[in-house]
Amino acid sequence: MVVGVATARLFIRASRSLKEKRRVLQSLKERLRKRFNISVAEVGAQDNHQVAELGLATVSWSRGVVEKTLEAVRGFLEHQPQAALSALQWECL
């Protein structure tokens, strides 16, 4: 069993309040869960209305599958109109 964990740092472009940030993140987290079958949670920068830090996790029988999934997540996050990906760090355990 291989576990992949990642931390993504996002800049929420149009967010002017924490309420707007939550709305954008809720939608983004739900799309990530449905599309990639991964676990997603906000893990940092909760008091900043334009910055978000998400923790992501996936499990598979193969390291290649985990790496492919996390690369696909990177590509997905890089093309989001409401949130700019500023950093993504991941590792396999």
Please provide a written account of the structure.
The protein has 2 helices and 4 strands, in the order βαββαβ. The radius of gyration is 13 Å and the shape is elongated. It has helices at residues 18-36, 63-78, and strands at residues 2-12, 39-44, 51-60, 83-92. The relative contact order is 0.33. It has 93 residues and is of the alpha+beta class. It has a 4-stranded antiparallel β-sheet with strand order 2-3-1-4, covered by helices on one side.
User: Can you count the beta strands?
Assistant: 4
Q: What's the gyration radius in Å?
A: 13 Å
The largest beta-sheet arranges its strands as 2-3-1-4
How far the N terminus sits from the C terminus, by CA atoms, comes to 9 Å
Task: Kindly state the percentage of residues in helix.
Answer: 25-40%
Tell me the quaternary state.
single chain
Task: Tell me, briefly, the overall form.
Answer: elongated
Order of helices and strands: EHEEHE
Short synopsis of the structure:
This protein is an alpha+beta fold and 93 residues long.
Topology:
Elements: E1 2-12, H1 18-36, E2 39-44, E3 51-60, H2 63-78, E4 83-92
Write a concise keyword list for the protein shown above.
2 helices, 4-stranded antiparallel beta sheet, single chain
